[in-house]
Amino acid sequence: MFLDLSHTKLNVYQLSQELAMECYKITRTFPVDEKFAMVQQIRRAALSVHLNIAEGCSRKSKAERKRFFEIARGSVIEIDSAIGIAHKLTYATLEQLKPLGDAIINNFKVLTGIIAKNE
Q: Residues 16-32: what's their mean pLDDT?
């Protein structure tokens, strides 16, 4: 936030921030008894995506960058899986999940492309 580093202008960084915001928005509507379970897990994974992208961008070697991007992509998959369970439990409708679903797909695609470039 205070460091004006080049990675903050990258599309992948901005997309991951959007993903985190969507995760926080949708989990606000989940039942109170999920506050310390599913809600925390989804939010932690969303923050992990964003933070691993930031840290990966700061690494000098391709191998290190790739590893952080792989971890970020794994967290995207984790969010998708948890949201699938939330939907089956009727915590949110597909219509309500659409913005988050779009963010999940966009992040997955971009991270997959970046990982391929860092091979």
A: 97
